[in-house]
Amino acid sequence: MRIGTGKYTYEWQEDWIQFPNPKSASEGWAHHGVVVTESGNIITLHHGDMKIVTFDPEGELINSWDLGLQEAHGMTLVKENGVEYLWIADNGRKRTPETAYEYPNPDGIYTGQVVKKTLSGDTVMVLPKPPLPIYSNGIYAPTWVAINEIRNGGNGDIWVTDGYGQNQIHRFSKDGSYINSIDGSEGEAGRFDCPHAIFIDLRKNSHELFIADRANGRIQVYDLAGKFIRCFGSEYLTSPSGFATYENLMIVAELRARLTIIDTNDNLVTYLGDNDEVADVPGWPNNVDANGSIIPSKLLEAGKFNSPHGMAVDSNGNIFVAEWLIGGRFVKLDSSTP
Hints:
This protein is mainly beta. 2% of the residues lie in helices and 42% in strands.
């Protein structure tokens, strides 16, 4: 099946990849990121097991390793001195079948953290919790990380979104020392509400910090010193959740069931797999049975998204989308022409 129009046409592929431990994968509530290495390998989190899994471009499993965290909610790939590393934002809690897909800590206990790892799973750095009064009693639940990479002319700063906690974005130096925080009130648009993802856009000469201000249905843009530049997208976005770029295009994963492509002037180009109405179904991104219990979605359709969450693009323009739902769904949009 092909989706899209004109030059923005892709082959929809669902069964190109098989996760190990299929029973666990079918029962786990997927809520994670995905990255693509320079060699084209795809790295993501198993839907049910706390293991990082790596697949080759054909979808064959290469290796896996124990994560040692609650979740790999946001995953960011960087390269330093010729070596690739993973930055992982762990929001600190995970829904499981053992808890009837409710969070296991109803009293609000989180163990959120941000960790840098090698591609074989060794821990290189753990960022401290920001030393702010709001965390004396408030939860810390990081959702994404962006690195101002030295190889791209940056200074190595680390930006962390606390999208599920205090709606703050924190800045650390390359050695992991806390610098400062922003909450959206510095700019003209106002405070963030679920700043879910953060991304450094390299498409222009002046690199910019893109923030998925999800609950506000918009994108806020800052410079790399934390100064507000602009806000856009409220007229055509509903739920921006993640970013990737390919050539001069930016692809935005929207949790409400679509991908949105925009140009360098922040204009809408097109939607892919648009299925907004599914997000209004009771129990979405899953369904509920007659007793009100959460069950896997029965509404998944080829060519239509349900809940895009993590996303990455390879060097050929193929898009990889990890959806947020019980059993997961890992879609490849193949950009090659038939």
